[in-house]
Amino acid sequence: MHFLQSLALKYSHIKMQKDLNKNLNISFNTNEDFKIPTKKSYMLYMHIPFCHTFCPYCSFHKYYYEEEKARIYFENLRKELHFIKEKGFDFHTLYVGGGTTLINENELLKTLELCKKLFNIKKISCESDPNHISIEQLSRFKGLIDRLSCGIQSFDNEILKKITRYEKFGSSEILQEKLSKAIGVLPIFSIDLIFNFPNQNKEMLLKDLNIAKSLSPNQITTYPLMKSNLTKTIITKALGTSLKDNEFEFYKIICEFFKDFKQNNAWSFALQKSDFNDEYVSSNNEYVGVGSGAFSFLNNRLLINIFDLDDYTKALFEKKDANIAYASFEKKEILKYLFLTELFSNKININAFNTMKNCNLKKVLNLEMKGLKACNAIIEENDNLINTDFGKYLCLTLMKDFYIGMDKIRAVFRENKHIYTKNNINIMKAKLS
Ligand SMILES: C[S@@+](CC[C@H](N)C(=O)[O-])C[C@H]1O[C@@H](n2cnc3c(N)ncnc32)[C@H](O)[C@@H]1O
Ligand code: SF4
């Protein structure tokens, strides 16, 4: 990596943090309805915030699973789905994320069936841990779930022990056995791995990649370990620290390893190229989120749903929208966000981007594009902007920063339950700035 490239990485990291911290001006929604459809069809995101146990690196929004709590939650989800149907929304794709989405199969089945009944949903993607992927369990979802991603994280028994997944989900050998039976039951199966764990070396990484590839899943996602302020101490306690950060070196190894695969985005590799992968933000400019703690991106606003489960129940009982807060953006900020999310999928067609977003990309992001070209992150070819190898890495680090920034929002909202009081809102605003 040359000097200009390390400078570009540092600059973009600082800029992204600043944008997320300072420019994300969150307001609290008292009664205004921002969830109004302006086009035909959207992507729907549904959050299932339950896990049996928690992993030390994970800061996704979740609660410990209790059957009764989950049953009430799914009932509320179905109420929210009816609510957005009444507003006139329709959806082409559904992403169910968590947590562990298959944690209560009966309730999930009922809810997915309702989604298909209410909307013209053609594709459904779900996430699971390795304890819900037996042939019997997955067979119940045939014809309903089109894509399943399963968190494996590593096939190294020492790492699995440190991240407390060895006892919960099984040793490397058991995981391989579970996966070999599960892959092929549903149309697309994706294995999630994490790389750049402290003290992970090149051999350990290659072993993970080789095992994942040998199981022949349709997709493999390799997330760089993301450490937010909330998780970094817990991660250090569980995994120790490394003297050297291997993220860039390991990413080069991963790209080289998957050179005969199609790259769906900077961290997802597939046997067949598809925009049906976990990073729905990169293939869907606007989306609606349902469920506790879900985000929506609609009409230039980021909308945040209620986090606390009792507040969520109360809002739906009162037939109120579950949206409690929002952030509005300037047009240039939106274009930068869309530019990053599209570039994350490796290629932008300038003409299509301009038409879709009603802008002149070269004019409005002139400086940003010059900077990216100068550090050899993108090249321009026949009206296309294409990521170079360095560009892919830059996008990976920016997406990582973006997710870490979202973590902070989640944490502040989760910490401050029943946020309707004025005093609480001021405390939260201070924490978010
Ligand atoms: C929301 S989790 C749900 C997966 C499922 N509950 C499981 O544990 O297998 C989706 C994936 O995000 C990734 N992930 C979660 N926290 C991460 C972190 N701190 N750094 C990198 N990847 C992370 C993991 O690969 C995980 O499998
Ligand atoms: S990685 Fe999966 S099982 Fe572990 S805490 Fe996160 S969502 Fe739950």
Which key terms come to mind for this protein?
single chain, 433 residues, nine-stranded mixed β-sheet, four-stranded antiparallel β-sheet, globular, binds S-adenosylmethionine
Characterise this structure.
A hairpin with a 2-residue loop joins strand 17 and strand 18. The protein has helices at residues 3-21, 67-86, 105-118, 135-139, 157-162, 166-169, 172-182, 202-214, 232-239, 247-257, 280-283, 309-317, 331-344, 350-357, 361-364, 366-374, 389-415, 422-432; strands spanning 26-28, 42-48, 50-51, 63-64, 91-98, 123-128, 147-153, 188-195, 219-224, 262-265, 268-270, 287-290, 295-298, 301-305, 323-328, 347-349, 378-381, 384-387. The two termini are 33 Å apart. The longest helix is centred in the last third of the chain and has 27 residues, at 389-415. A 9-stranded mixed sheet has the order 10-11-9-8-7-6-5-2-12. The radius of gyration is 21 Å and the shape is globular. The protein is built from 18 helices and 18 strands. By secondary structure, the chain is α/β, with parallel strands linked by helices. Iron/sulfur cluster binds next to loops.
